Amino acid sequence: MKYEGKKLVWRDYQKEIAEDHYFYARSCIRQTFFPGSEMTFLRILKDELGKDVCDGAHHTSCTGIGYHSDIVPLETTMTVIARQFALMTEAGYENYAASCITSFGLYTEIIDMWHHFPETEDRAREYLFKATGREFKVPKNLAHASDIIYKFRYEIAAKAKYRLVDKETGKPLKVVEHIGCHYSKMFPHKGVGGAEYPYVLTGMIEAWGGEVIDYPERRHCCGFGFRQYIVQANRGFSIACSKKKFDSMEPYEPDMIITNCPGCPMFLDRWQYALSEMEGKTYGKNGKGIPVFTYEEVAGIVMGYDPWEIGLQVHQVPAEPVLDKIGVEYDPDKKFKGPNGEDLGRPVAPSYLKFYKE
Amino acid sequence: MGKLYDKLSQDVRFVESLKACINCGTCTAICPAAEFYNYEPRVIATTVQSQDDAKIEELLKSETIWYCGECMSCKTRCPRGNAPGLLIIALRSLSQDLGYFTESEKGRQQLALKRTIGEWILKYGYCVNPDIMNPRLHPEQGPIWEWEKEHIEPVMEKMGANYHGEGPGALRKISDADLQELKNIFDITGGTERFRKIEESSEKKADEMGLDCGHDIDSEYFDYVYTTNNSKHTRS
User: Fold this and answer.
1) CB of A68 within 8 Å of any CB in chain B?
2) Quick one: pLDDT at residue B1?
3) Which B-chain residues 205-224 have CB contacts (< 8 A) with chain A?
4) Residues whose CB is less than 8 angstroms from the CB of residue A26 and which lie 6 or more positions away in sequence, other chains included
5) Residues A33 and A135 in one domain
6) In angstroms, what separates the C-alpha of B51 from chain A's closest C-alpha?
7) Is this structure's pTM higher than 0.95?
8) Residue B231: exposed, middle, or buried by beta-carbon count in 10 A (0-12, 13-18, 19+)?
9) What value of ipTM does the predicted structure carry?
10) What is the CATH number of the domain that holds A241?
11) CB within 8 A of A170, min separation 6: which ones?
12) Superfamily holding B3-98
């Protein structure tokens, strides 16, 4: 095979991803805003692919958002991370799978730091033992959960009920992929495809029938910026970053956005709503937005899972235009019902962003 | 070499982040914060590299060091392998250790971050939790979040979460024993001391400003630091 252009870059940035037996660590933001995505990840890994995943109760946040808000010192964060590794070790696992990109970036950074400054690893071991009596081994393999879905993208495609294809025209859906900054900007060799042209989501999109849009601000941050979103006075920075991306992708008329970081899909979804309220501006056709998905949700869609079980009803930008274009069968009346079909009312429609069909 | 530069040199992140800056400005060109704020990571690197204590002290008390979003885009592109974003983390850390952070509007926000994210880690075991994502503080979350909050238990159950439940799963209750281990780690490694310093310096500043610092997110000073923006931070 002749490698040139981006394929040449991707060949240089391949990483080893474990085949089985993962210790899974949940994400602060993912489980708060998109718990259905974590459920879908485990359902695909365990039920569809027959993999062994330890979903334990005792792990916690890695403190990453606190660390990058600069209120949690390095020594504290690296010891909490050491505790996560100890829980993995005690459970008999060697392969660590992080749901969160901030966590994945921090684990990568801390392991790199321990390698270059061994005295810091000694301190982490000493602190952890003193605080908890625990000891740990550094993971043999560290992956972000999107790496694992990427690894099994063809197996998922083989089992899929749907493809990312327009059912009317047979053409691939046009997809914007957005990679969380901490996936590979700090350590390009730890991400599939590197930092300039990450392939982790592109590989999934291509395997499932879609077409990736290459637009100018593809690598720009979504604008989370930790303190830049958490503190209300700073949110102008956050929304400005997302706006820059939307303005840049709009001319390419994307059908959807797919992301691998827990925060990015929430910001790219919510800031579309906020921009519509502030400026009356929407980025899809006819007052619609551009639906934003997690990669687990997209995997769940192609697998034919019920959209309301994987959590698509909690998006502010409705997912239905994409479901309809693909031809996904679903019951629109169940969208805002409870688990036993109970009536939960309906959210108020935004002022400009089209939310309901009628 | 000044004393502040010496202190910075003891931080492993400083050692990793700044080798020899050639002042090319690539970091500024790629930086999302430099596009929005009056901010140039290149100038931060140059100032620190000067080893001039007076300039470094000015930096530690300035608005400037709080503009970075720590996305680390600078790390990818720097032709010399520097990481201005990591240098910023070291500077912010020292600014808090010395109590300088309350000298700037953006620095004073550390109290808001400590009383939200910081305390939530120790209370819930996670930095974020739906219970404390208040629509009043987060209007951008939209009507979908208001609906979700109103029906949180059935909505979470439908999505497979174990909301406030025992055992594994999304949004499970973290056991007291696990929270105690986190607390022990914070006590032993300086996390608790960092929180104490943020509170102590903030209380002093609140007194100077004639505002009630309180102890939670309902205080006058919290509200002030959480919402105040003098509109002089951005590029015109």
Assistant:
1) yes
2) 62
3) none
4) A38, A59, A99, A100, B170
5) yes
6) 23
7) yes
8) exposed
9) 0.98
10) 3.40.50.11810
11) none
12) Alpha-helical ferredoxin (1.10.1060.10)
